[in-house]
Recover the amino acids of this structure.
């Protein structure tokens, strides 16, 4: 597939490629975050996780998990949640501190038109079936499936459109095509969904890497936990109340994941341990409706790739970027952030709103601007923790909003000593904002940081970590600005301790099975 242009014209033999890209030179929580992306749910980028693997024996690997299509109800047939055939999905990695991408992964869809005999008099008639499967599904590309999604994986080094692109291969077969499992239709269609899905975890040979990685693309449990509705109802809760006093309102949802596990040595460069990641998706610039659509050709697409979604650190576009610039942020690159969006970070509006709603609006609860602590948290990396050597804190050269991970720090899993779902605020330096693990409570971390937890003044005496002591010590323990949902009450079955780290998804049927399934870490 051509990288620079995605030309498709009627009558030319339609290209059915859908793509997933990850620039390695190596986003986070963003659900319906812009007016435009609400119209395009298949390319709505919800969460990005970048962390050193805490699976036993995989500590020298980095997990990259990008989630798409929020709020998936398990029973939502008959078409469920295929990815967009016309989209280029990307996870980009900066490994030299210049806020420019350096790898890319791509995939295509194929349609299988199954038919069954009709009950007619005379000659039998085979008619195409209207549903996604006609029998029990046990294996990849099972003959009972009416729709099979396949993808290819490319690694692009350098510019994501003009760099050197090479195919990633299945280590078992040397083939360049992989299969995405169908969504969890129900227990009659797929009696052992976990076993079926695990057949779609592939060991991969990545060009330029001495060790094999792993890839999985498919539906999983929604791992992001939060009290969503009450947050956006003018924070209709007690932000200084119990961290586990509210309901994780989306614990009955599934999500579509693009998950990679890449050798750390393949991501870092020039003795720089810090990498930065962000996820994007692009569509062809032109989109024309076909007045006589077929099932796999409802539109005609053409023109250059045009980026429509972007995600780095969680919640940036949702609660930091102002409404007039949300669509623009989704179309932008980190290298342009300082010039285009800096004032939203240095002079944020969220702390002012929280002060008005809960602290009387006198300003005492709002840390003084400019918020250089937020500049480090979101744009440059935290000095001594996640800031790359080449990023300048004064000139902001090399700065850009992304999720940064210091690969030199040891991984910390939820069963390890020192783990805290509050990450840095709990003195767990293996957690957010040093990358992001699925188990990190990024809502409470970011709310507390927004209200000054890591400023020198800390005007609200919030919980933080004093890293000047040996070992680092938690200060003001328990004083956390919270949405009321912590890891302890997020729900059962959201996470597993091995790749792809998100739990087995809920089935569409029977209804009583659509409950937390108790998958242990």
């Amino acid at each position: 597939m051509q990288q620079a242009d995605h030309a498709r014209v009627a009558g030319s033999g339609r290209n059915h490629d859908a793509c997933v890209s990850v620039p390695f030179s190596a986003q986070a929580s963003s659900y319906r975050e812009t007016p435009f992306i609400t119209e395009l749910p298949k390319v709505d980028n919800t969460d990005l996780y970048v962390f050193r693997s805490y699976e036993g024996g995989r500590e020298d690997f980095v997990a990259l998990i990008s989630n798409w299509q929020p709020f998936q109800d398990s029973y939502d047939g008959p078409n469920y949640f295929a990815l967009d055939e016309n989209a280029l999905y990307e996870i980009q990695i900066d490994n030299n501190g210049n806020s420019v991408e350096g790898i890319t992964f791509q995939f295509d869809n194929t349609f299988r038109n199954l038919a069954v005999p009709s009950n007619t008099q005379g000659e039998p008639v085979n008619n195409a079936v209207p549903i996604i499967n006609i029998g029990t599904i046990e294996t990849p590309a099972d003959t009972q499936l009416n729709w099979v999604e396949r993808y290819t994986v490319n690694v692009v080094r350098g510019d994501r459109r003009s760099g050197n692109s090479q195919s990633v291969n299945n280590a078992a077969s040397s083939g360049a095509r992989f299969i995405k499992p169908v969504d969890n239709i129900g227990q009659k269609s797929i009696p052992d969904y976990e076993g079926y899905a695990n057949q779609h975890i592939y060991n991969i040979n990545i060009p330029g890497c001495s060790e094999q990685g792993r890839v999985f693309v498919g539906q999983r449990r929604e791992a992001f936990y939060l009290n969503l509705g009450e947050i956006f109802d003018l924070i209709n809760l007690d932000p200084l109340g119990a961290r586990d006093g509210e309901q994780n309102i989306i614990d009955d949802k599934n999500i579509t994941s693009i998950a990679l596990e890449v050798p750390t040595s393949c991501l870092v460069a020039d003795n720089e341990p810090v990498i930065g990641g962000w996820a994007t998706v692009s569509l062809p610039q032109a989109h024309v409706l076909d007045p006589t659509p077929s099932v796999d050709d409802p539109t005609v697409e053409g023109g250059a790739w045009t980026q429509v979604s972007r995600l780095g650190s969680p919640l940036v576009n949702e609660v930091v970027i102002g409404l007039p610039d949300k669509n623009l942020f989704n179309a932008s690159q980190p290298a342009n952030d300082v010039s285009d969006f800096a004032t939203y970070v240095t002079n944020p509006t969220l702390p002012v709103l929280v002060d008005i709603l809960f602290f009387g609006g006198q300003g005492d609860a709002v840390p003084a601007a400019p918020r250089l602590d937020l500049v480090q948290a979101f744009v440059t990396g935290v000095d001594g923790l996640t800031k790359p050597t080449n990023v300048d804190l004064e000139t902001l050269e090399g700065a850009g909003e992304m999720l940064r991970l210091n690969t030199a720090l040891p991984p910390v899993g939820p069963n390890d000593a020192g783990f805290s779902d509050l990450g840095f605020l709990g003195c767990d330096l293996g957690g957010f904002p040093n990358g992001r693990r699925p188990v990190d409570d990024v809502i409470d971390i970011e709310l507390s940081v927004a209200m000054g937890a890591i400023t020198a003044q800390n005007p609200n005496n919030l919980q933080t970590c004093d890293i000047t002591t040996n070992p680092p010590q938690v200060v003001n323990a328990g004083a956390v600005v919270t949405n009321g949902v912590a890891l302890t009450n997020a729900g059962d079955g959201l996470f597993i301790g091995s790749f792809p780290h998100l739990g087995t998804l809920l089935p569409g049927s029977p209804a009583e099975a659509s409950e937390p399934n108790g998958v242990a870490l």
Observations:
- Residues 1-19, 21-29, 512-520 have pLDDT under 50 and may be disordered.
- The CA atoms of residues 111 and 296 lie 7 Å apart.
